[in-house]
Write a structure and sequence with these properties.
Layout (H helix, E strand, L loop, with lengths): L2 E7 L2 E7 L5 H8 L18 E4 L2 E4 L12 E3 L12 H8 L9 H14 L5 H8 L10 H15 L1
Parallel strand pairs: 1-5
Antiparallel strand pairs: 1-2, 3-4, 3-5
Bound molecules: FE2/S2 (inorganic) cluster (FES) (2 copies).
Length: 156
Amino acid sequence: MNKTITFTINGQQQTLEVEPGTMLIDLIRDQLNLTGTKRGCDNATCGSCVIIMDGKAVKSCSMPSEKADQKNIFTIEGISKGMHLHVIQQELIQSGAIQCGFCTPGIVNELVALFDQKPNCSETEIITAINKHLCRCTGYEPILEGTLKAQKKLLG
Ligand code: FES
Ligand code: FES
């Protein structure tokens, strides 16, 4: 039986009817047309579908959409302020950490959630967070470099 859920996404409240078994990625991409959330493996492995739900980075490909009820969600579309990119996005660009860009939304969301929860986190914690994401292009070093620069800026 379909269920009606209400949640906030990128600051806007939404009420939608969802079919049982629908994953959050389908709701985000197909019903809300927020296609910045990428589908890679579709089996909770690659991290490209990561969004932020109630402050935590979660894989939307393995999250039943019913679980979004009453939650506060951010996708990559809600991370920048209009044309003004988040400092993490700016530093990843500066460090050459974006090539095809397919992994980037998931990585940015992962790092935004991490720095919101623990602004002073260690390099090891950052590496652990980045390691949850598959990047076929960059070799990870530019991602880490950009992330460390962003952390420094965020800490002021
Ligand atoms: S698409 Fe969700 S983890 Fe790969
Ligand atoms: S930049 Fe292409 S997969 Fe990461």
